[in-house]
Design brief:
2 domains; GIY-YIG endonuclease; three-stranded antiparallel β-sheet; mainly alpha; single chain
């Protein structure tokens, strides 16, 4: 568990972050995003574009955290002291400031007009399995051994539902997922900003939207 710094050697400004990955591998991924001008933090991205990659150094500054809670607390501490490039206070995604921001965005997005349009868009659509018999390959997944009824029945007995709140390793609760869907489909916030607020990757957010068949609402 690592707290790291990305420092601009020209002015001393820093971006503070945390990772449980190999820090060098983490830094390699960030450099790739920065070089492609696709980094989620616009302050650091703008500085990178202005000063060039040679002006930034990556440094591990704290290895003392033993738990996620300690890691979050350390990140908040270092961001408060040194994080000139950080846009958020860091730490737990459910911090008071993050909750306040999410609540505000949700209220702005979910107007009466938007709610009515969402409701109308979902009415009258037939179920995906309408007209298909139970023994249809599409229903039972007969072409995929792992989707056959006998296999699925055995798997369901051996594995409890560990999605959302039930998964101890999950970053997101069911409430978080619902908020992300609302923000993505009905607010003006960019997908990368929403992903940053909830400390997930942009790719994870897109996969989540695809899984839930969510599309952005265009005003």
């Amino acid at each position: 568990m690592v707290i790291y710094s990305i420092k601009n050697i020209n002015n001393g400004n820093e971006y503070i972050g945390q990772t449980i990955m190999n820090p060098n591998r983490h830094w390699t991924g960030y450099k790739y995003q920065l070089n492609k001008n696709k980094f989620h933090n616009k302050y650091l991205q703008n500085a990178w574009n202005k000063y060039g990659k040679e002006s930034f150094v990556f440094e591990v500054i704290d290895l003392s955290a033993k738990t996620n809670h300690e890691l979050n607390e350390l990140e908040i501490k270092y961001i408060k002291e040194r994080g000139k490039y950080n846009m958020l206070p860091g730490g737990d995604n459910t911090s008071a400031k993050s909750r306040e921001l999410i609540s505000e965005c949700t209220k702005l997005a979910m107007t009466k007009e938007v709610r009515e349009k969402i409701s109308k868009s979902r009415k009258g659509k037939p179920a995906w399995n309408l007209g298909l018999k139970y023994d249809s390959p599409k229903i039972r997944g007969l072409n995929n051994p792992t989707k056959r009824y006998e296999v699925k029945l055995k798997m369901s007995k051996n594995h409890a539902d560990v999605s959302g709140d039930k998964n101890p390793n999950s970053k997101l609760s069911n409430d978080d997922i619902n908020k992300i869907i609302l923000l993505y489909s009905n607010s003006d916030k960019k997908g990368k900003e929403i992903a940053y607020i909830f400390n997930i990757s942009y790719g994870h957010l897109l996969r989540m939207m695809k899984k839930n068949k969510i599309r952005r609402y265009k005003k």
